[in-house]
């Protein structure tokens, strides 16, 4: 891997500065304002005791997610989906990805008949909004589960979280595999991949797309290597953020 | 007016702490994250050179606004309007109010054929989201106009702003007129009024509603007095915030 | 106040001719075809025994309203909202205003678990459609309540109406406060205000908007004076219309 | 045909009282408030000089129609289609029928590049709303064409109307063919047919439906005979109504 | 009737080649891929035990239908209605026609509390898609009823089908009545009529429209004669197709 | 890899029978009815000379795709998206995937200013509908390009296709990697992956999802190996099908 710096001075295998403001919202049962560089996403977790009617009586819970972007999160203002009256394909796709990713680390029996809705609202976008959403939503989810346990909605010994989960993008830019693409990099990437990984290093989701040239097996492997490294770092950051006050 | 303190310790004529983070967004031409206590609204101003086709060729600009609330801005999560596929009456009404209020202080000839869209997204709601939106949107608008002038889209000597504008809520709670109602006060108010005022103390909009008992002329006058005082303070805060870097 | 006549020969403080055809519809439990000059609104009240599920079991009723304009009520034909697939902001806003205004004079305990829907359909528009709607809807509502009492859905001694309600527009046209603006006046008004008042002269709603120049306290007071006078007259007309057959 | 009277005392071959208030609307270029008994439809014709872009330059005009029912036109209130966000199949079907029927008597070359929109809004419904709509829309259309000619949008010698058009329902009720079904009859009819006929007695549209038992050729013929008679009467009424002031 | 051949070599009273592939779909309880010449419609019948809540407890079933066209069934691709977000008037109208036509031959008491949905999806369109849909849907319906009887949802001796049903188009092309119009003929027809007939030769629906000149009684009679003949043939084909395996 | 047979008797690395009926539709410029076992998708390619306005003047073409399922393609009938008035997330996601996959093998400069819309309508679904769609759409696209060249819309020497493209699903079922999952296998798979590959064996898209347990690097590699083999076979089939008549 080359050591040449990127536009923002990073090496190819370097994450942008990651910050997680846990408990940003006073209203939600769990919340996190996460930044991957200039990308900022407000993740809230809404805990409801009970499940949708079609799931009732099975002793299992449910987790779902919604993703959205403020109209001026991007450099050019886009129309609100509420104004257009329909949700676009991209929004749907990312909402589903976030939901699947978080559900993969939840034990629904242990969660009991409770529902958690994760809202990921992009306040500012500079690439990697879906990966930041997944990574931040995990922190919000963890806090909402603590909230639910404290109020007796979740059993004292139940372990609803089987693992942690984070996500990062990787891509091939000018022939070189790179970690955590910022918007300018993403728009020039030949291949773009989002990789969702558990804290223990297993894959939940691998989504790679050739934007320009198709990619070969070797390139795929190099990207997966990078993504595993990046997610290792993110899992560490999540652990550190969640450790605060956990003993109390 | 009684001196009895309110739930948050304020006197009847006291505003909640107001903060305005100017330039919060890197993407927008103007932006402000405004707080009225726990109410937090991200206001962005998007400047576009040119006007909608039906206005072209008249040498005049246009200003419009959109208001929205994140689903978990409130204590109970509400469905996204984009998911429901339609914008609710309340959202429409507030968007229109913000637009009218800001247009009232803009000289469209001086603005020239430029369009500014003000997006007010409520990140956290605790009463007064529409008044915070108007007050914050003015700051975002002012900065977007500076941006437009610097790039030559607005004439050097043009004065697109005729005045400043701010807004505050007032209401009668347990028989007593109060300024800047927080959510718990608002939900118990017998009468609720939103008053939009220029920096020079004239009315742009007066919207008073009897939620419980109808109100008489005397009560109306007391509420208007309070609202004028509150807006005087807000105009001062706006002036202070906008003074920073204005000389440079 | 000047004595100069207006386009239609009225003095500034004069209402247009008001007519109310009570019981216009054979189908509705209450109805009124109301005219403010050339503005004509068909108001119907639909009485349903029972309330929406979320209100059941509280012994209280509900009143709601919907406003709409026929596509060719105006001088230029506008597209139907049903065809556009969404209700516009203005329609929403007025529907909500009518609903709030009528609810303000209803005692929901006395109404019992009954629901009344007020439909205000503008057949011809010449300014003041929302004020005519409120004024006419009151007559339709009163008749629907009589209907409900006759069928035993409302208790014999229950008094669901706490007061009457009417509404009128006022505005400043060429510097002069005027009552009940016709369309040509409304479109030129610097300030436009709709005032909803009970029969006993208290305010239910005050909505004043500066269309051109902001207005000061003195102008606001002059407009409120006019509006109170106009509503006094409307309350008289409503009383007269409803007196017919009331003894029988 | 039996001489037994119907619920409202009519003979099988008798129309309900038909009234046409021509020029009911001050705003529209042509208008008629038509009644077939208790069925009342407000028909307006909106004349626009010019045609939709896809028709421009061919020297031909266009006529289109929209049908709608006020929510409380019927005995039970139905939801507004604008509120539901979509137009129902029945509304679409009738709008298309009205449009086709009126276009069948218009010479588009003679009309020139002008567009006429016919709005038929049912204020009160008691069966036969679509046939009343067609019959009333013809009167509104005729007046709009006069308006267009007077303003020079239609050539002085052009004859845009090739014929008149009216419509009536017929049906088999308890085995007997009947003309102009009221709602109670319509809901019990075994067969229901709407027949649109020109003033010269030719068919524009025949729509017969077996609601209960299928019908045979003989019954079909009896219904067509009745319908032709009914339309003859309607054509007379239209002629009389339109004669007023035509010489002037 | 002239013996002159049509574009595809048919005589005026000749159907296009009709084929019915019964049981085309492995998933549906009944299905038929029907062709009228190049028009191909996939008809499926979905059998559900039970009825919508508003019908429950009456011991009666229900049959409904939905019609749709693939976007490239026609010569020019049309937008999908799902993408446009609303179903067009034509689609609604045809879906309703198919539903009414099939219901006319069903005895809902004998069907019992079961629901059948008929989906008619046009894979390729060359005129007559609605008549092919009705004719094919009957075959799918018949098979779904067999399926329901075999599983005990329909009583052993119950006869839910009172008759068979088929449909054909007729029209006047260059002055001559013709059977089963292909697209090129349909688009030039002066009069276009769809006739739905039972196997025993009675009318369920007659829908005739003058596209060009209005038509007289004689032409109407000639068209009905042709349509009855065509439907006689279709009923034969249906009978033959359904006879296969019926004994087994 | 185990040699144990699957429910349908296949070995883990065996495709279901694949058939491609080229030119199924008479209307479309290119078409293919493709089957992967009981999964049947009708793919049509609509060729339009010209591009959307925002692309005009750049000398480049565009390819887009829409995917949909007939309501009774599946074992239980699902509501039509056109009836629901909105396209679901899954449909959006697959439409976008098909579009991206096909665009990856097109040289837009060589295509010239032409637009091709690929419609993939699932007539019968038994797993693998998106992979069958991509594989069949390629054949339809190839034929549409021949059509465009024959009519001179594409240059004689232009090579708009850079490669072929096909897709196949792979998954881990009861611990074992398997190729081309049928519906019953897919619904039990722990991991599900769709792999889009060029004829020359490079990746265009890799989408792997852990439905149950997260998967490790070794499992990922085994799945990719299988997918490459399956796509090699599909590319052969495409080549054979397209060879017919290609010399003529």
From TrEMBL, chains A, B, C, D, E, F:
Exoribonuclease phosphorolytic domain span: 14-144, 164-228
Chain residues that bind phosphate: 90, 128-130
Enzyme Commission code: 2.7.7.56
Cited SUPFAM superfamilies: Ribonuclease PH domain 2-like, Ribosomal protein S5 domain 2-like
Catalytic function, reaction form: tRNA(n+1) + phosphate = tRNA(n) + a ribonucleoside 5'-diphosphate
UniProtKB keywords: Nucleotidyltransferase, RNA-binding, rRNA processing, Transferase, tRNA processing, tRNA-binding
Family annotation (PROSITE patterns): RIBONUCLEASE_PH
InterPro entries recorded: ExoRNase_PH_dom1, ExoRNase_PH_dom2, ExoRNase_PH_dom2_sf, PNPase/RNase_PH_dom_sf, Ribosomal_Su5_D2-typ_SF, RNase_PH, RNase_PH_bac-type, RNase_PH_CS
Transmembrane regions listed in the UniProt entry: none
GO aspect biological process, one term: rRNA catabolic process
GO molecular function: 3'-5'-RNA exonuclease activity; tRNA binding; tRNA nucleotidyltransferase activity
Coiled coil segments of this chain: none
Family in the record: Belongs to the RNase PH family.
Purpose: Phosphorolytic 3'-5' exoribonuclease that plays an important role in tRNA 3'-end maturation. Removes nucleotide residues following the 3'-CCA terminus of tRNAs; can also add nucleotides to the ends of RNA molecules by using nucleoside diphosphates as substrates, but this may not be physiologically important. Probably plays a role in initiation of 16S rRNA degradation (leading to ribosome degradation) during starvation.
Subunit comment: Homohexameric ring arranged as a trimer of dimers.
Protein name: Ribonuclease PH
Organism expressing this protein natively: Gryllotalpicola protaetiae
Gene: rph
